[in-house]
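Quick one: C-alpha cells for this chain, please?
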Amino acid sequence: MDVVSILTVVVVLCYLIGASSIISKLLHHQGPNPKIFLPVGCLAVACHAIVLTQHLFINQSVDVSLLNMVSLMAFIIALATTLIAFKLKVNLIMPVSYGFAAILVAIIALVPPTEHIFIEAGKIGLFIHILLALLAYAVLAIATLYAFQVNYINYKLKSKNIMAVSHLPPLMQVEGQLFKILITGTVCLFLSQVVGLLFIEEFLSKAYVHKTVLSFIALFIYVTMLWGHYKRGWRGQRILTLSIISTFLLTLSYFGSKFVKEFLLT
C-alpha cells in the first residue's frame, strides 16, 4: 500500500471518528466535546489536502475531472466547517460535513478514474472562474446546512424541548450567521459568472449553455431570497426550501454533465 492509499484510509477514518464523536453526544446536555472532534477533524482535513494535491496536480497541469472536483468540494466544506467550529457551535452541521467527506473520499478511492481532464496553468481566467464557482458552491452548501440548523432549533423551541438545543447557539445568532454566509456565497457565485462571461470564450456555447443557465437561475433565486429576507422578512421554512432548490440547481450545473460524460457515456 502506497503513501497516498494510507493517507486516504486515515482521512476516511478520522472523518468518521469526528462525525461519530459529535453524533454520540448530540443529545447530551453538555453537547459534543470539541477537544475530541476538532483535533481529529484537523488531522482529517490535513491528510485530505495532501491526497488532493497528489490527484489534482499532474505534470504542471490541473486535473479537473469529476472525482477530483467532488473531492475538492468535500475538502473545502470540511475545512470551512472545521475552522468555523473553533469559534461557533455548529454541532448539527459538522457530522453532515464530515460524513459527506468520508463517503466521497472512500468512493473516489474505490472507483478508478475513467477520464482525466487537464487545464494548463496559463489559463488564469478559467482558473479564477473554477475557483470562485467551487468556493461559491461550498459556501452556499454550508448556508443550506445552516438553514436546516435554524429550522431544527426553531422547531425544538416551538415544541418547548429546550434541552435538545441547550448546546446550540441562540436562534437569532444562527439566523444572522446564515444570511452572512448566504451573502458571501451569492457574491462569489456572481463573480464566478462575471469572470466566465469575460474570460471564457465557450461560456455561452451550446456545449456549456445548460451550465450557464442553471447557474444564473440559482443566482437569481439566491438574490431573491436575500431581497425577500431584508425587505419582506422571509425566514424559516421558506429560506430552507429556496436554499435546497438553489443548491440542487448548482449541483446539476457543476456536476451533472460531468457525471454523464465521465461515467454514463464511457
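The radius of gyration is 19 Å.
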